[in-house]
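Weekly puzzle thread! Below is a chain. First person to post its structure in token form gets bragging rights.
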Amino acid sequence: MKTDIEIAQSATLRPIAQLATELGINEEQVVPYGRFKAKIPYENIDEAKVAQSKLILVTAITPTKAGIGKTTVGIALAQGLHKLGKNAILALREPSLGPCFGMKGGACGGGYSQVLPMEDINLHFTGDFHAITSANNMIAALLDNYQYQNKGTDKALKQITWRRVLDVNDRSLRYIVSGLNGTNNGIPQETGFDITAASEIMAVFCLATSLEDLRQRIDQIILGYTVQNKPFTIADLGVGGAITVLLKDALDPNLVQTLEGGAAFIHGGPFANIAHGCNSVLATKMAMTYGDYVITEAGFGADLGAEKFLNIKCRKAGLKPSATVLIATSQALKLHGGVPLEAIKQPNLKGLQEGLKNLERHLENLQNFGQSVVVTFNQYHFDTSEEMDFTAEWCRARGADFAPNNGFAEGGEGAKPLAQKLIEVVEKRPSQAIAHTYALEDKIPEKLHKIVTQIYRGRGVDLGKNAQTALKKIESLGLTHLPVCIAKTQYSFSDDPNQIGLATDFTLHIENLIINRGAGFIVAVAGEMMRMPGLPKDPQALHIDIVDGKITGLS
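Winning reply:
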């Protein structure tokens, strides 16, 4: 079989204007970025049509080194629905350059279930990430200038909490000292960088519902604290308009296509292990304006992306999935079942049975949210019918439907069984109203406790010294009503990445609470979670090249 990039480069793409016309978008409303990608003005969103569309969430069991293929399955499902005559559109996140050149690779799917043009989407795309990076760092520069111009006065801030960002994995920038080499170069201070996906600007961007809403959210962002211990915001700095201008064009969702010519809106890209892990509200609602079925995904396992999708994004945007697809692979189940990495491609029903305990917890959690769940196997050529049949029967015994998915190898044709099963579930027993894990009126510690005990199934939470100090500030500012967004490892229900499978009898250690007032949630940093990833020993960048004018090595 060809590599992902070979498959992508051999495809014949449709002109984006033609695709937009077929969706019902007027030519003058299409802002092309070349021939195969375009921005569509968010003003096209029609809330009446949004209310009629069927939103499908794609999530997964706890990720492993073997991968799960969530984006691949989501794309395959949309293609499979098309094969069955349904008007299905994708709403996905944009890839980050950090993972693309680091360990995880790109985020355009794989095999014969990809979004195109793959190279563009995985690299600079339409410049949205660069706009967000520039906006974030413009704020930092303006804030440092404010401090410099007001040094020695009571206008100078006592504490700065705003950090710079880059869309790269660079551990050396996590903690730095800036402003060195004399007073002409600023004021020396300890600071650092996060990855762009972790920026509050990214979260604000993805949750905004209009340009006006974006501006209001930006103005509310807290940058630091005055000598009187009062919050100092972007509105206080007086640059909200300038930052909004930097983001104006980026705010419109991006239209691209699947390998089989279906529509996909790809926009925004917060990570689910350090942010809320969902594409923009605007892209989701744009897809729902033009699609009868809209397939979206939330990052990493259901304990991270799906929890935040349901407790934060849906709550804020007034959305409700009609069904949820929960992905497993035989390899991941066997790893969670204690099978050594080198043996996970071999038949091992006992190991798979043990790993189903991880799937069971995610399934129960989603059902507790009120979701109708379809479990799917992201198939590999070495999967056995015995393992799939056992998993199908196991799912039925727990009130969930099951269907295989072979979209990687066969595209939409291989996803037809999953698509058919999904249609049956949506038409006969769609999801109920979302039963949120916590009430917004709950105190912050209570919200954290409910997520840890009900979703992760741990004993509770332990707030470290920094978190306790931050909690007092949150309470004094009257922000306890905000939802919480837990930043933790994606590899475990606990904050220890080594506790795979079914972590039990643990306490989640919250090291800090970060106020994202513009985004409208509190980030709870658990364990040793870093908001700036590092590169692996063998980064993907070592394999990326351009040969005879063609990019190679992207995945």
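Puzzle host: Confirmed. Bonus trivia for everyone else. The chain has three domains: 4-126+250-428, 129-236, 444-526.
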